[in-house]
Design goal:
491 residues, alpha/beta, 9-stranded mixed β-sheet, 8-stranded mixed β-sheet, 21 strands
Length: 491
């Protein structure tokens, strides 16, 4: 007979509270942590043997949103969340704060679908952005959600204009609403942001920003109120059939959700299908009114250009610029656990930011941090539920996980509860299938590392040539074709 449901106020070990002493706040390399306000208390590690209807491995966005929607739709469920370190330790607490109405690798999911079906998929992705904002308002979570759209600028060098025009056609061909994705000429773009050498760009309406750490804290507090059992410092060391084991306890459950994204390095078999890729971010000191007048961004849209370095930025609520660019892949698929980044990584991103906005010359950088996103071998996000094995997972967001994690968590909740919904009929939802049936396994080392280094070097060389406006008759076209081939595989 199963033990009675243990709420977060009824810890298994008999302690008076599930909370440990809250760590003292300190300066953090991560701007989101340094500006979060009052942090959540620490939650006690799992002790002993517990039972649950659903146990979730991973206390990031996917895990917390999954718990939220399961309990909201089925309050009687016993749900436990296990986090290896502190909630939001991984990519959910380290990202750039974008909420994108799109999916990385979407074309792979939509291939072969008719126009009506593609448009329905894109409409759901667009609506997901508004659904996040609405849910946060109803739940009373102040995560500084702001919907200002996105500017995909053609700037810095001439070749970017053709790239962005092609990207707009790509978005429309996928099925995105032309009212949500439209071209801005150079003057229209400049009224919103004063990029160097602006030549036009795309305005994508269904994009927002939020404060990731405030979202994590708000969800954790809400889940405790809903009766979800929360444990930190509870790394899962073994994933069995309908049971997970930590160093100090275990949980038996009807369903296990793996929600570790790029931080499941010790969790077989997931670590054979998802690998971590770094993304590194900086934040400026608060900028003066005069500086903002020169830069623009008055409506606080997000922004990026067409560089293969994959940069992204936005104006925060307290008047800073948060700006990031894709990092590298570490040999052995090791995710980043440390917070701070090297001075050279900070300088590279600062220089790129100043290249976009020359008015920022001399700007002070207050924070620099990094994290690891999850990349699946199929290069597309997924939500998988295998009821025969009692296993579910979602991930592979490839750097666009703030919005995607919310969508996939809603999808997992519907699949686990046996609901036939629009979410479960989407092409990224795989019910009744196993991990190996949906996602390929990554090649062994050193092949992964060598391929990553080749792509990174090739992208950097193309960026250098374009910045210098050099066109080498044989080298430049060949390098562009090579990088287009790389991009068609991994983007």
């Amino acid at each position: 007979m199963d033990a009675p449901h243990l709420t977060s106020r009824q810890p298994a070990t008999g302690q008076a509270s599930p909370h440990q002493e809250t760590p003292k706040t300190r300066d953090s390399a991560i701007y989101w942590s340094a500006s979060q306000g009052e942090p959540c208390p620490a939650y006690a590690p799992l002790e002993g043997h517990q039972h649950a209807d659903v146990v979730i491995i991973g206390g990031g966005f996917t895990g917390l949103w999954s718990a939220f929607y399961l309990k909201r739709q089925a309050p009687e469920l016993a749900v436990t969340v296990l986090e290896a370190q502190r909630f939001g330790h991984g990519a959910s607490g380290r990202n750039g704060g974008w909420v994108v109405g799109n999916l990385a690798g979407l074309e792979r999911h939509l291939h072969g679908l008719n126009r009506d079906r593609r448009e329905a998929c894109c409409r759901l992705l667009a609506d997901n952005v508004d659904a996040i904002g609405d849910t946060l308002r109803r739940a009373g979570i102040d995560a500084e959600f702001h919907k200002g759209g996105a500017l995909y600028a053609a700037a810095r060098y001439p070749a970017q204009e053709a790239i962005q025009r092609d990207y707009l056609q790509h978005l429309l061909a996928l099925g995105h609403d032309p009212r949500d994705c439209r071209w801005l000429d150079a003057d229209e773009l400049t009224t919103q942001a004063r990029f160097r050498d602006a030549r036009g760009g795309i305005f994508h309406r269904q994009v927002a920003t939020l404060h990731p750490r405030r979202l994590i804290n708000g969800l954790v507090r809400r889940l405790e109120q809903m009766g979800v059992v929360l444990h930190e410092d509870s790394r899962v060391i073994r994933l069995g059939e309908r049971e997970v084991t930590t160093a100090r306890g275990r949980v038996g459950a009807t369903t296990v959700i793996c929600a570790t994204e790029g931080y499941g390095e010790q969790l077989a078999p997931l670590n054979r299908h998802l690998i971590p890729v770094q993304s590194l971010v900086i934040a400026t000191e608060p900028l003066s009114t005069e500086c903002w007048d020169e830069i623009g961004l008055a409506d606080r849209p997000t922004f990026a250009d067409a560089s293969r370095l994959i940069n992204y930025g936005h104006r925060t609520q307290d008047g800073r610029l948060v700006f990031g660019a894709r990092g590298n892949y570490r040999f052995g698929a090791r995710p980043r656990h440390t917070e701070g980044i090297d001075p050279a990584d900070i300088a590279m991103r600062r220089d790129l930011l100043v290249d976009l906005f020359p008015a920022l010359d001399g700007v002070e950088i207050s924070h620099g941090w990094g994290g690891s996103l999850g990349l699946s071998r199929s290069f597309r996000p997924h939500a998988i539920h295998d009821p025969g094995k009692g296993l579910a997972t979602a991930g592979g967001y490839a750097g666009e996980g703030v919005a995607a994690s919310h969508l996939m968590a809603r999808t997992l909740a519907d699949m686990i509860l046996g609901r036939d919904s629009e979410l479960t009929r989407m092409p990224w939802a795989f019910a009744g299938q196993g991990l190996d049936q949906v996602i390929k396994r990554w090649e062994p080392e050193p092949l992964r590392w060598l391929a990553a280094q080749t792509i990174t070097c090739s992208y950097a060389q193309e960026e250098k040539l374009m910045q210098q406006r050099k066109h080498l008759p044989l080298v430049s076209p060949a390098l562009t074709r090579l990088n287009d081939a790389f991009a068609s595989i991994i983007e």
